[in-house]
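Homework-ish question, so no full write-ups if that breaks the rules, but can someone show me the predicted structure for this set?
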Amino acid sequence: MVTYIVRRLVTAVLILFGASFVVYQLTALSGDPLEDLRASNAPNREQLIQARTELLDLNTPAPLRYFGWLAGAAKCLVPFAATCDLGSSIQGEAVATALARAMGNTITLVTTATVLAIIIGISLGIITALRQYSGLDYGVTFMSFLFFSLPIFWLAVLLKEFGAIGFNNFLSDPEIPGSTILVVAIASGLIWALFASRSWKRKGIAFVLGAVVAAVLLFVLDLADWFSSPGLGPIIILVTGVGIAFGIVLLTAGLRNRKALFSALIMVALGLVAYYVVNPILNAATIWMIIIFAVVTVLVGIGVGYAMGGYDRGQSMRAAALTGLLVGFLIVVDRFMVTWPSYVNNPRVRGRPIATVGAETPGLDGTFWVNGLDTFTHLLLPTLALLLASLASYSRYSRASMLEIMNMDYIRTARAKGLSERTVVMRHAFRNALIPLATLVAFDIGALIGGAIITEQVFAFAGMGQLFVQALQRTDPDPIMGFFLVAGILALVFNLVADIVYSFLDPRVRVKT
Amino acid sequence: MTTQSPSDFPNRSTSTVTGPVHKEPTPDADPTPDVEQAPAADQEARGLSQGQIVRRKFFDNTAAIISLVVFAIIFVLAFTSVGFAGIPGWWKYNHTEFLPLIDGGAPTVTGPFSWGEHPFGQDSIGRDYFAMTMRGTQNSIIIMFIIGLLAGLVGVVIGACSGYFRGWPEAVLMRFTDIVIIIPVVLAAATLGQAVNRYVGSGAQIWLLGLFLGLVLWTGLARLVRGEFLTLREREFVDAAKIAGASNRRIIFKHILPNAVGVIIVNTTLLMSSAILLETALSYIGFGVKAPDVSLGLIISQNQEAFQTRPWLFWFPGLFIVLICLCINFIGDGLRDAFDPRQKKFNAGRAKDAEKPAAA
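A: Not a homework solution, just the prediction itself:
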């Protein structure tokens, strides 16, 4: 195994050398870095041209200039010496600093979208595979083809128009007209009917229930002016928490496992107690505090599950920890919602919360909660655009994988043993269906830092993609090389990780040593 | 970048496997059983070639056929309306004429046969938007086909050589593929686009853009073809051909390639649909087709500020991108099903019955 990894790493370094040389030459060819100066009519034009020629070392031919850059970049390999020299952009900013900033921005943007796309896409794929040829399957398949075919810049402009401008207009006067309630109710009923199982009677019940619940919900929310001052409150947290507890136990242990169910419900009760106890402390929250709370919640959940004892403690522990985590998430969401009015009325936000450009409201200086909301409103639309665009491949992939698994002999064996459908699907099929997806996920995480060039461009988000595009427009080689170095190294490393992970997950596949 | 790259496509078959129940079709369920519905053994008895089987399966796929028809309509519309390669089209305007604005440039199309003066409206300086959209569609289709052809060709040659010959050709070719794979596509396109504008002039822009994109997009296909060749070359029929004294060329072209043709065609089709998105996205951020020529991505980018006041400038080009891409995707999916030997003729009602015992 070690030989294999070492060999792959050596190859990766060689590939990186070759590719970086090509990229450098391409960049040098791509345009004239002096273009804007040549066109300018500043009195000191000649001097400016001179200065930039010197800065970019334009008198040396590009193939030789590459080695100058390489010498600087090679210093980054010296550990702890802080001699890293990736050059500087035309404006004179060191590339290393620019890269660090852009990377931070990109990671905040892309992580949520990727994680959500993976979770939603895989669940959709699995569900459609289990309901092959149902209305749901056709619906989801068509939608994924549609989203697959949508140009992301077009989608982004649409989102800006209807998601930001339209929604902000709505928020300034949150009054839902009856016709909207009707349309939303019918849509929600249709979606519920799609998810319901095959018989028409059940579909009908699901449609009516979905429509009525949606209509009543919208009506009540409208009456209570919820959109101006949202919040969950203890009762909704309790009801949702119990729902979560049942759902998680149903999926992970089966409702017949009373011990797991009780430990999950205990976690909901504890969460409700925590809602009152922790709330005063949350005023001075930081991100670390939230993380520590999350860890504590998981530990408490594991403890509760363990204390319940019984035949299979692991199931109770898992269910309790997961329920605790989600209830904790609800409490945090509630807290954010409570902060919402003060965020919207902040003089810098001026009552138009959903932003269309940038990563944050400039000059906004608030508590953790206000800043968190600010990040949320800025990330909402780009995340949505990325999510919709990448959802399709995950759902298609996991559907295909699940269909293949469900036809395997060991699934038939599991059914023949008399296992419940839940056990067959969750324990035998689902886990194995995820194996081929591990490769895809690893690739995507590798490509994550490279950023979303188009999305960042449309939403004016100062991430890696924008750094790259702007440097390319100015024919500025050093930032491009910096971008390429980061993206290329990550791509190569995650390629390797994907192969290794695959051989761990699927014992039939062994790496060649 | 987030434009879907070919590697994003599900390469494994998204087959709609219906299970063993299909092997016993009830004769009375179908009064006129035709070849596709009969078991596979029957097809062989009747001596259908692979091409015939695939064609029949493909033509049974409603979504794929509808897509094919829609794509053909778009194709004919785009190429005949504004003319192509110097041949004038039947539409009265072209994409460069400035005309006086009529009714603020609002679209006049009211139905499929009442187009009016400017069916898709006019842009802010009075150009006929229908002509522009058609020209952009034409360009997108041209680029798409060039990319498909070129990337397909290069990918197949490189993948086939490295998969068949193994040894040092494989090492060299695959390392070369690795190098090309991590070069950002945007960079390659932008660079080569600039170079084109400088040395060739903007006339040949479309063709060369397609050419260059094709020269960097073949990597995914090369890997797939290599994988396919690696498994196929170990099969008995290849050994048999070798023992019979067939040359390498003959084995590659006559024995292995026909078996890998499904993978190649399907993935080339899917590559083409992502090529459309890539071209429009590149033009949108200013690295693809440049003015004065027209691309669907370029006109969306030029007119997106006017969304509030003149939304049609935004809707029509976007609609055409989505339509083309959707058609190509459905065609690709239909081809995938057609080439998949495990796939029997799809019949929703029977599939449901078949699935019930399996999923119960």
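Now go work out the reasoning yourself. Hint: The mean pLDDT of chain A is 82.
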